[in-house]
Each structure stands twice: as structure tokens, then as C-alpha cells.
Amino acid sequence: MMSMEAEAIPLAGALPRRSRQGLVAWGDKRVTVGGSAPVRVQSMTNTDTADAVGTAIQIKELALAGSELVRITVNNDDAAKAVPYIREQLDRMGVSVPLIGDFHYNGHKLLTDHPACAEALSKYRINPGNVGRGDKGDRQFGQMVEIAARLDKAVRIGVNWGSLDQDLLARLMDQNAQRKQPWDARQVMYEALITSALESAAKAESIGLNGNNIFLSCKVSGVQDLIAVYQALAKRCDYALHLGLTEAGMGTKGTVASAAALAVLLQQGIGDTIRVSLTPQPGEARTQEVLIASELLQSLGLRVFVPSVTACPGCGRTTSTTFQELAKQIDDYLRASMPVWRARYPGVEGLKVAVMGCIVNGPGESKHADIGISLPGTGEAPAAPVFIDGEKALTLRGAGIATEFQQIVDNYIEKRFGSLA
Questions:
Q1: Torsion of the alpha carbons at 92, 93, 96 and 97, rounded to the nearest 10
Q2: Which of the listed residues 300, 323, 345 is the one where a domain comes to its end?
Q3: What is the pLDDT of residues 201-221, one digit of tens each?
């Protein structure tokens, strides 16, 4: 028998994060990461960094799409020499995004030989598995951290299961063999990832790097593996954590796998920066991974980047494609306008628009949105009521509905958000 006095259902929302807050800085500009800062979106270029102009252009595209930090490959002398020019070009274009240098194998030498590169970068990504083995690895890791500490740069210690420290892995496998009930091989791999990150972080702090500016990542390519590793890592430290499913793949597979893994962790309050590591499909823009990451955070209610467009999926009542075309047109228009609107219309990213296809849910959804339109379904009268702030404002008819509705959206934005500028 159902209780007469039901308990209130808890409000939905992600658990609070418990990481410490650090800074990624360049000049007098700052991006906070961790703690009470928003979960940040990060991306990475796929240009040849030695091509300073091409790399700067792609960074600008990623930043305009919503990437708040951008990582670039620094793998040789030519790339290192180009970094200061990339920073200079971005500053000229007014692109305020910090640059992260991605180093493997020879980072200690590049940072030492090219001090202008070390200065222009805001953050260094160091992979403990790729800095050398034994004493040599300790020295080379130490060189990079000393430079970061002296220049007050942030460092991401990024462990990857494809390039684990083999000496550490061998040590943990030997320890596992001594257990009465040995762990599964995957569990040893999890432990190796976490131990590598934590031991490297402790070493970096002992050298003099500010612990608040140490960020950790332990990347794998399996959804369940990533969740297990980060859940354990978050229990064992309070460093800010970077989330990403490495080699996620392309298209639907990469999108779904990344969203599945990251959403679980973010809901649990784990993760301070995220990247959706998509393999671009032929002809696909690099910015697609930024849009997916932003959409993921917005879907979870953690961030608001662009106005949302609610649209029905269509059914037998909506054999016309008018509502699909209008929904896409409005969504594309809102996204394309955001780089200008962010400055001109403060708060516009929270706008909710509904484009519905028939009378079943159309009026109701439109009333819940800030501005909505309920288009006629199959067999319905050729009229489209428009709702503004929950009230029916007018009805559109004829062939120009799409153009008229877009103008109504423009007028609403100007009236509501223009006065806040």
C-alpha cells in the first residue's frame, strides 16, 4: 500500500567536486581549474606545430568553439621555436586561450634549449612513461619540473596505459605475485596507472612545484576501465583531474563511449577538465570534439554554453519535415551567433527555444521554453502558434514561418538580453 506521506525526491545534480584549485596563466590572464571553478573544456590541435600560422588558426577555431585550454604538440626544435610566434599571433587576434605543451621523450631538452617556448606555454603535459627509465628518467623529469617551478607554470602529469613506466609495472607485478590471492592483470594495470601519477606528483612537489598547479590524468580506452581508475584515483588524492577516454575512436562510437565514461564520473563529482578525443571523420572539423564536450557538460547541468533548442523526434503525426528544417536552422543560427552574442547579450547562453512538430506536446513544450513555436502536424490546421515567456503571443501562417520565427527570436534576444550589456 502506498504511503500517504511520501519522502521528497532529492533534486537531481552532480555531486560536489573536492579537488584543489590551480591556475593556468599567461601574461596577466588566468584560467582557474579545479575546486569551485567550472569544469573546463580542453582540446588539442592536429596541425604541425612548426606551421605557426596554421596552428594559430586552428587554435582560434577551437577557442571560438568553446575550448578553454588548447594543447599543442612540441616534439622537435622546429615546433619549439614556433610556440612563441603562435602565442604572439593569438594575442594579436585577441584569442585568450592558454597553450599546453605536449611533451614526450625529449621535453627536458626542448624546454632547456628553447626558453622562449618554455615561457610562452602556460602548462606542460609530462608523461612519466616517456621521460626515460631509471635514474635517467628521474633526471629528465626533474629538469622539466624545475623549469615549470621556476617559471610558475602548471603541469599535467598524464599517464597513459599505452606507455606505462615498465619498471613500475614490473615492480607491481612482482608484488602481486607474492599475494595470497593475486589481483587480476587489469587490476594491476589500474594500480600502475594510479601509482605512476601519484608518485610523480609527490616527486614534483618535492622538487618545488606548487601542488595546486599539478593536474593528473590516467587515460585508458575502455569505458569501464576509465571509470574504475578515476574512482580510485579521486579517493587517493585531491589534485585536479583531467578526464578523457584516450583513442576513443571516430563518429558515433567515439562520441557515445566518451559521453558514457565522462558522464558517470562527472555525476560523481570527479573531473575538472575534460577532452573528447575524437578521430575526425574525413572532412570533419576538429572543433567537433569541443562541441561534444560542451554539450555533455550542458546536458548534465554543469555548464551553459549556448541556447538550447528543444525539438521533437518526429512521428506519424509529423510527416512534414518543416519542424526538422526549422529546428536545425535555429540551432545552427544560435551557435554561429554565439561568439558575438557572448559579449553583446550577457546571459543569452541560458535561452531556451522550442521547435515542436504537432499539437500533442507542441504547446506544452513551447510554454516551458522562453520562446517556442508549435508547427502544424499532419492533418492539422496550417497555423503555428508562438509562445513567449509561457504565453501565446501570436500565430504564424504561410510560407515565411521560418524567417518570421527567426526574426521573433532575434527581437526577443535584443529585448531581454540587450539591456544587460
A1: -100
A2: 300
A3: 999 999 999 999 999 999 999
DSSP-derived pairing of the beta strands 99-103 and 371-374: unpaired
Asked whether residue 92 is domain-assigned, the answer is yes
CA distance 68 to 294: 10
Please report, in range form, the residues annotated as the binding site. 312, 315, 358, 365
Res. 182: pLDDT tops 90:
yes
The pLDDT value given to residue 331? 92
Confidence band for 2, pLDDT divided at 50, 70 and 90: low
Q: How many CB atoms lie within 10 A of CB 209?
A: 23
Helix 52-65 with 288-299: angle, nearest 10 deg: 20
Q: How far apart are CA 358 and CA 327, in angstroms?
A: 13
| CATH number of the domain encompassing residue 221 | 3.20.20.20
Domain that holds residue 218: 19-300
Q: Express each pLDDT in 279-293 by its tens digit.
A: 988 888 999 999 999
What per-residue confidence (pLDDT) applies to 218? 97
Q: How many residues does the chain have?
A: 421
What rounded mean pLDDT belongs to the chain? 94
Which residues make beta-bridge pairs with 308? 352
Percent pLDDT > 70 in the chain is: 99
Residues 290 and 337 occupy one common structural domain: no
Residue 248 CA to residue 308 CA, distance in Å, equals 26
Q: Which of 290, 302, 307 is nearest to 351 (CA)?
A: 307
**How many independent structural domains does the chain possess?**
2
- Residue 121 pLDDT greater than 80, yes or no: yes
Hey, which residues does 310 pair with through a beta bridge?
354
Same domain? 284 vs 201: yes
C-alpha to C-alpha distance for 41 and 66, rounded to whole angstroms: 7
Positions of E strands within 128-206? 154-160
What CATH number is attached to the domain comprising 370? 3.30.413.10
Q: Tell me, what's the pLDDT at 315?
A: 92
* Pairing assessment for the beta strands 391-396 and 384-388 based on DSSP bridges: antiparallel
Domain end among 277, 300, 323: 300
Per-residue pLDDT tens over the stretch 306-320: 999 999 898 999 878
In a domain, 11, yes or no: no
Question: What pLDDT, on the 0 to 100 scale, is given for residue 216?
Answer: 98
> Do both 268 and 319 map to the same domain?
no
Residues making up the annotated binding site for [4Fe-4S] cluster are 312, 315, 358, 365
13, part of any domain: no
For the whole model, what pTM was predicted? Answer: 0.93
